[in-house]
Task: structure prediction
Amino acid sequence: MSHKINVAGVSVDTRHWIGGERVASADTFTDHSPIDGSALGEISRGTPTEAAAAVAAAKAAFPGWAATPWAERARILHAIADGVEKRLEELAIVETTDNGALLRSHRRGVMPRVAHNFRFFADWLLTLGHEDFETRGHTNHVSWDPAGPCVLITPWNAPLMLATWKVAPALAAGDTVILKPAEWSPLTASLLADIAAEAGLPAGVLNVVQGYGSEIGDALTSHPDVRRISFTGSVPTAKRISESAAAHLTPLSLELGGKSPLLVFADADLDLAVDLAVEQYDNAGQVCLAATRFLVEESVAEEFTRRFVERAGALVQGDPRDEATDIGPNIHPRQLEKIDGFVQRALAGGAKAVIGGRRGDGQFYAPTLLTDVRQDSEIVQEEVFGPVLTLQTFADEEEAVRLANDTRFGLAATLATGDRERAERVGAQLVAGTVWVNCFFVRDLQAPFGGSRHSGVGREGGTWSFDFYCDLKNTVTAPKGWTDRG
Result:
C-alpha cells in the first residue's frame, strides 16, 4: 500500500511524522476536497499508541534541543522559512485543494506569512532577555528556560498559518512539539514535517500526528509528560482539553470562537465601512476574528445597507483555484449543515434575509445578511463560522457599546468612525482581545493576540509567546559569600 498521495501534482505523505520517521497507523480516514467533494486519499488515523510515541519522541529530543544555542535554533528556523518559500506554490495548491480557501490568497498572503512566522520568532528569540536588576544589593537575573514537550492542536480554516503561529515560537523557545492538525485539512502539516527535516531540525523536535478529535486528542492533552498545550478551536473542545490538562496542571493557551462586532458610526467614511463589512466574507466566513455582527448608527443604516448589498452582489463565488473567485466553498458537508441550520432557524424566528439565506451547489453557501434579528437570538449570540452576517442599528454610543459587548465572546471588534476621540473612547469600552479602528485583520506578530471571556485564555505573540512556552526563572545572588580562588 502506498502511503503517498498526489494532490494537484504534489506528493504528500499520509503517515504520521514521529521521531524523525514516517509511521503508519493500522486504520485510516478519508480526506476530501471541499471544492468538489472528491477523495484526496487515506490518512493514517492516530490512536493513543501514536500519541504516546510522539510524546516519547518529543521528550527524548527535548534535552538536546533545549541545550541548542539560541543562535543555532534561530538559524534552523530561518532554514525552515527558506524551505517554505522554496515550496510556496506547492503548499498553496495543496492547502487550497484540502480546505477550499482561495489560491490567490495562499500565494500572495498566507504562505509568505507562514515563512514570516518562522523568521519573526527566530529573530525575536535573539532579542529576549532583561537587564539584571538589584534588590537591596542582591542581583536578580531573569532567564527563559524551555518548558518541555508541547501539544499544539490547530484548526482547519487556515491550517498551516495557524499551526506555525504556534510551532515557530515553541521551537524558538527550545521546546519540542507534537502538532495535531485538524482532520478536515491535514495535508500541509505533513509537508511542514518534510520541510523541517530538510532544514536540519533534529529528529523528535517536531512530530505530527493525525486523527480524529478525542480518539487521539485526549491521549495527548492528558499525558503527564506534556508541559504546554495550545489549542485553537471551539469552546466545547476547549472545555474538554481543560479537563484533561487539569490532572497535571498543564498550562494552556486557548484561542477560541468569536462573535465580533463591526460598529459603524454616522461620521465614518461609508465606503471604507462597506469595504470592511464585505471583507467579513473572507474565507467563506470561516474566520474566528470575523466581525459577523454589523452595528450601524440609525441615521446611516439604510445607505450603508444599500451600498453593502451592491458590493456583496458583485462578489464571485466559485472554484477557489480561479483567480477571479472571491468566495470559495465551506470546508465540509457537516459544516454546511450547521450553517444552514443557523440561518433557517433565524428565518423561522422572524429574521429577514436581505441577501442569501440559502445553500448553493456542492459545499457553497450564498453570502448572507440577516436583519430584524433580536439581540438575544441564537444567530446574534452564537458563532456560525460561515458567510452569514447580521445587521442591527443603534441610536448612540452607549447603545452601540452595550450591544457590542452583549455576548459571551470577546475575541475582536472592528470600529468605523471619522472621530479620533470617539474611536479612543469607544475602543476603551469594548471587550475584545483586539480592536481594529478603520481597518481589519492587521496583525503584527509582536503584539499580544488572544480573546476575552469565552474567546480564550492567555495571549501569544512577541514576548507573550515566550512567556507561555518558557518557564521564567529569576536567580537572586547575594553580594557576599564568595570564596576567592584566584
In short: The radius of gyration is 24 Å. The mean pLDDT is 96.
